[in-house]
Amino acid sequence: MKWEQLPLGPLQTNAYVIWNDSNEAIVVDPGGEAEKLFAWLDSKGLMVSAVLLTHAHFDHIGAVDDVRNKYKVPVYLHEKERDWLSNPALNGSEFFMLNKPIMIKNADKLLVKEQTLTINSIKFEVLETPGHSPGSVSFYVKEAGVVFAGDTLFARSIGRTDLPQGSHEQLLDSIHDKLMSLAEDTTVAPGHGPITTVQTEMDGNPFLNGF
C-alpha cells in the first residue's frame, strides 16, 4: 500500500490518496480543486474505487461529486451525518462559503458502527471518533501503521469543537480511547497540517496533558 497527502480546497484540507500495486486508489476527504486532484491521479496512472469521508464539513467534501461522477464510485460516510452533504447549514458552507454553498448528493454507503472495510484488498478499521462533529471517524490501516484521523487530532493540536454539534469532552475521549490506544509508532495523517505520530502527540501535544 502507498499513500500521499494532497492539500486541496479553500482551507487546504488534506486529501489522501491510498493505492495498491494494481493502481487501484481510494480518496479520503477530497476537499476541492477536483482538476488538480484528477491531474495528480492521472500522472500516477491511478483509478479511483471509492471515496471515504472522515466527516462532512464543507472543507472536506468540495470535490466529492466530481470524483464520484468521474469514476462512478461509492462515497462512505457515518450515518450520523447522513444529511450533511446536501445541507449547507449542517456542512458549514452556508456560514463559511457565503457565495458558494455546497449541496451534493448523499453518501452511497453509510457507516453505522465500528467495522472493517476491505477495499482494493486494503483493510480499514473504522474507528468512531466523534467530538469535532457527531459522525467523525478515523480510518486505521494497521498493516501500514497509519490512521487517517480527519479533524480529530493534529500535530500539536486537536480539532475545534465550537461548531454545531461539537463536543470538547467527547473529542478528548475519542482521542484518548481510540487514537492514543494505537501503537505508539502509528503515523497520524490529519485533516490539516503535517503528519505526526501517536508517540509525538502523546509526549508533546499541549491539549493532551496527562495522556
Compact description:
Residues 12-192 form the Metallo-beta-lactamase domain. This is Metallo-beta-lactamase domain-containing protein. 24% of the residues lie in helices and 30% in strands.
Distance between the termini: 30 Å
Question: Main sheet: which strands, in order across?
Answer: 1-2-3-4-5-6
Number of discrete helical segments: 7
The largest sheet, given as strand count, sense and whether it forms a barrel, is: 6 strands, mixed
CATH topology: Metallo-beta-lactamase, Chain A
Order of helices and strands: EEEHEHHEHHEEEEEEEHEEH
CATH 2nd-level architecture: 4-Layer Sandwich
User: Radius of gyration over alpha carbons?
Assistant: 16 Å
Q: Count the strands?
A: 14
Mass-distribution shape: globular
Low-confidence stretches: none
CATH superfamily: Ribonuclease Z/Hydroxyacylglutathione hydrolase-like
Number of domains: 1
Structural class from helices and strands? alpha/beta
